[in-house]
Design a protein that fits this description.
Blueprint: E1 3-5, H1 7-19, E2 25-29, E3 32-36, H2 42-60, H3 73-92, H4 99-103, E4 105-106, H5 107-111, H6 117-120, H7 128-149, H8 151-172, E5 178-179, H9 183-200, H10 207-224, H11 233-250, H12 259-284
Antiparallel strand pairs: 1-3, 2-3, 4-5
């Protein structure tokens, strides 16, 4: 006998043995049910049932929370300020520059070496509805990225993954392809959250729970990232994929998350954005 219990529990265990092609029989003995197996397979059957019970015990335990190490709001405030500032500059041709021509993603130009467009394009929007949607969704997902990774590391990861997503988009698109907007960074934030939660928050659970955040991110990408006449679907996909990589990297225990490191990441992201625009406006003049 390898197991004893009520009818439902032993039926479940019998299915485990059946799935493993292990011979067994289930019998009622008094007020309980028993599972019997041949002597020669008793050890293997006991091991399978022990592994199944252990897995279910882990899955039934309370889920460890993904740690929150920051408030999340400072990064959102900086994100909103940058997008609003660039939108105002573009609408008024601030300082006499054509901000749209200088900052948009031009696949041919990026392939020719104008890397800074992968960064500047994330901040360029032509109309209020486009800007508003990216402010709302970017602020929402960026808040949680900043809260769990820290504002410095989190927003540096969003900027880097968004730029990488734009770069990948430029490589696979025709040379004439042009694109603007923070949506690539928004889906990078979704990817970062998905991978980071997967790596840090649910690693003790069953494989279904472990892949749950990734599946949720893919579902969100499919639901919100593939509609609209002017939607750059490829940019959303490449941003999400770049975010997955960035989130998995940021979940590594070797990545610093202390206060000094957060400041360094924040200054680095701000410097990268300023440098990209400085080059873009300098080249356009």
């Amino acid at each position: 006998m390898v197991a004893r219990g009520d009818e439902r529990a032993t039926a479940e265990l019998a299915l485990v043995l059946l799935a493993r092609n292990l011979e067994h029989r289930r019998e009622r003995a008094g007020g309980a049910w028993e599972i019997w197996v041949p002597v020669e397979t008793a050890q293997a059957a006991a091991a399978e049932l022990a592994a199944y019970r252990a897995e279910n015990t882990r899955a039934g335990a309370p889920r460890p929370p993904v740690e929150a190490i920051d408030t999340g709001w400072p990064g959102v405030g900086a994100y909103v300020a940058v997008l609003l500032a660039v939108f105002g500059f573009l609408r008024r041709d601030f300082l006499g520059f054509d901000w749209l021509a200088a900052g948009r993603l031009d696949a041919g130009a990026v392939s020719a070496g104008e890397w800074w467009r992968t960064v500047t394009a994330l901040t360029v929007h032509l109309d209020v509805s486009h800007l508003g949607s990216n402010l709302a969704f970017g602020g929402f997902f960026g808040y949680f990225v900043g809260r769990h990774l820290g504002n410095g590391l989190g927003w540096a990861a969003i900027l880097a993954a968004g730029a990488l997503g734009n770069g990948l988009n430029a490589l696979v698109q025709p040379a004439t392809h042009r694109s603007i907007g923070a949506s690539t960074a928004v889906f990078a934030a979704v990817g970062i959250l998905s991978a980071y939660t997967w790596r840090r928050g649910l690693i003790r659970h069953t494989w279904r729970a472990r892949v749950g955040p990734i599946v949720a991110g893919i579902a969100l990408l499919a639901y919100t990232g593939t509609g609209g006449e002017n939607t750059d679907i490829v940019a959303h996909l490449t941003g999400f994929l770049a975010g997955l990589g960035a989130g998995a990297l940021c979940a590594s225990p070797v990545v610093p998350r202390g206060r000094q490191a957060q400041r360094a990441f924040a200054y680095g992201a701000a410097a990268m954005l300023a440098l990209a625009w400085w080059i873009a406006l300098g080249r356009s003049g």
